[in-house]
Amino acid sequence: xLKGDEGELKxxxxxxxxxxxxxxxxxTYMEWTQNxxxxxxxxxxxxxxxxxxxxxYPLAFSIAMYTDVEQTERLLRAIYQPxxxxxxxxxxxxxxxxxxxxxxxxxxFPNVFIASHLDKIKWGDVSVLLPAINCMRDMVRRYKGRWKxxxxxxxxxxxxxxxxxxxxxxxxxxxxxxxxxSAARMEMARVEHLWTHRxxxxxxxxxxxxxxxxxxxxxxxxxxxxxxxxxxFSRRMLEYIIEDPISQEYLRWCWDTGHPSEHYWNVLNYNKxxxxxxxxxxxxxxxxxxxxxxxIRAKSWVGHYNNRECQGKVVRGICVYGAGDTxxxxxxxxxxxxxxxxxxxxxxxxxxxERHRNRTMMRDKVDLDRxxxxxxxxxxxxxKDGLE
Length: 388
Known about the structure:
This is Protein xylosyltransferase. By secondary structure, the protein is α/β, with parallel strands linked by helices.
C-alpha cells in the first residue's frame, strides 16, 4: 500500500468491506487502565528515551478531542515519549463516559494530563481557540522551562515524522515559529463586523454568522492575516500568547470576530511591530504562498489551492484520508496529516501507524531532508528569539 501497488490497494478495499472496523469500547479502556504497567506494555508505549538528544530536547503537545477514545489513544501512543509533555482537552459536550475514560487513561502516565479548564466548542467562534489556549496556559504556568517547542493537535491526526525527526526540525527552526499567515487571503469582514451564533429555521440548527454590524477597530494598527489554527510554537511565543498584555487584549477583542482561530496568533506572529518571539519578518508574498502549504500539516482543502484528488471522502471541504491516500502521505515532508476517521477505510491509518512505529525504532537512521526545512520561509525570515 505504501508503494501505491494497485493490487494491494484493491485487496485492502475488499478486506475493509468484508471486515468493517470495530472500535475499542470506552469500557474496555477503563478496564485496561486499571493496571497501568500492563496497559503501557501491551499497547507498546515507548517508556525510555530513545536517544540522549531527544531526552535533552523535550517537546510539548496538546490534543483537542471530542470523540473516539481509541483514535486519541493511538495518536498519543504514536507521539509518546517519556521526556515530553501532553495536555488533552476534552469538549465539555462529549459524553461523561468519554471524560471518565480519558481521566483513567491519563493516570497511567506522569507526563500526560487533562487541561485544567475545559470548554464547550462551537464551530467558527473563539471557542475553537480555547483547547490550545487552555493547554498553553497549563504548559506555561505549570511546566515552565521543561520543554522547547509546543505543537497543537486534534484527535483525528497521524504523525508523519518521528519524535527524533521533530527534534531535528525544531532545532532547524531554532527559536522561530511555524505559524501560517496571509494578508492576501484574509477576509476582512471577519474583523470589521460583529459575528455571533443564531438559530436558523432553514437549517434547523445554530449557525455562526456575520451580523454585518460594524466592529470597533483594534486600538493598534495591525495587518490582518489568515492562517491555520495549528502550528509549531517556540517556548517564548507561548509565554507571549499567555502573558503579554497586548496578546491578551487582542484575544478579548477577537471574541466577537469571525473565525478567530484563523487569525489570532497568526496576526501576533506576522506583525513585526509586536516583536512576538519567533515571529515572521519576511516578504509578504512568500508568506501568502506558504500559508497554503504550511509544513506543520498535510491537510487537503478540496478546491482550495489544492488540485490533488482526494482518495477518501470529502467532509466540509476537507479530505478525510482513505487507503488510496496512503502512498502520497508516505512521501510528504509535513509533520502531521489531518484528518482521519477511525472507522473509514481504516487500513490506510493502520498502515501509516505501522510505518511510523517502524521508523521510530530506527531512531537516527531515518532519512531526513534537512535542506527542505532549512529553506522554509518561516525558518529563513523569522526571529530567532523564541528559545532565549
